[in-house]
Amino acid sequence: MAGLLFQAYMKFNPIPLPLPDTFAGQTAVVTGGTSGLGLATAVHLLRLGAAEVIISARDAARGRNAAAHITAEASKGGGGKDDGGRNKKTLGQVRVLELDMNRYDSVVAFAKNVIEVKKGKGGVDVVVLNAGMIGTEYELGPEGWEQNLQTNTLSTTLLAALLLPYMKSERANRRSPAHLTLVGSMRHTDPDINQWHEWAGQEGGGGVLEHLNRPENFGSANDRYASTKLLLEYAFGELVKLARKDGPNNGDGDKGQPQVIMNTVCPGIVKTSLARDYEARGGLGMRVVVAIFQGLFGKSAADGARSYLAAVTTKENQHYKHLMSHIPMPCHIANELTQRVCIRMSERVISSHAGQEMQAQVWGELRHELGAKVPAFKETLLTD
């Protein structure tokens, strides 16, 4: 109950936006940029000075419509005193790149396109891997994986792994590190990893990913979403090692200087179409429940996206942070308190001995799957 009351408070007390021109001249990439938090993030970035915002879209027509909307909204203020609307003459551009998170080849092609942006000139400045889903029923994708696992975990991990070496290599051409943010959820603390250890230890069971991939183990949509976000946190915990100056074998352990600042961020409850499957399959009653819940506790997408902006403006000493950036305090204080909260909540599943063992287990399974099917992923790991 206390958590919901806090969310209700946050609905009316959003954190402030970064200063105008914070992203002046920068290039940003936002996946899932045609709706919801991704769309709102793109608008903010353009308003705050970005020279180019690249969004992903599965459908070309939808991408074009989103780009037009972003440009139109960014050219005007949203009504708040810190909205920072920009004159059209100084507005950056929006580019749309195709991305289907259900297909590895699409993820690889998207990464290749991004890598060519400002190559040798500092590369992209900001990447927000926002594309995600909550599918309410079991559905197998073309790569042989349940759709939530594919989108939220496997493809997001793959895209981060493909972009990271490129962003890292551009550090010598930059005054400060670029930012790579993965959208997580505090629901990642929900799963019982004792069960996961049992699945991993079952002879012939195929491990945690294979267990979760079976139709009979789908469970509820909420449980599935939480599991995919914990799997992503485990992948994130390994990828951050690659972001250090000398890679995972840095003699200083976790103290290696980050060449790319990486974070995961939880925006809290936001009124978006993420719950559309609930509404579509639950009928009128579910639509009413979702509307009431979001009306009481959900922030607007524009306010929720501010947490993403907070994540991509963190400093080097905030690398490898799990951020709940929606706390309405000065940013340096918010991040300090947020980190303490996240550490306490995440200790059981991540920083504990059992959590670290499970992270190694899951990372091994992810490496096996992606390395077997995506040659570019294996090459990425060899570079570090």
TrEMBL record:
Pfam families: adh_short. SUPFAM superfamilies: NAD(P)-binding Rossmann-fold domains. It comes from Apiospora kogelbergensis. Belongs to the short-chain dehydrogenases/reductases (SDR) family. The keyword Oxidoreductase applies. Keywords: NADP, Oxidoreductase. Gene3D superfamilies: NAD(P)-binding Rossmann-like Domain (3.40.50.720). One of its GO terms (molecular function) is oxidoreductase activity. It comes from the Eukaryota. This is Short chain dehydrogenase/ reductase. InterPro entries: NAD(P)-bd_dom_sf, SDR_fam.
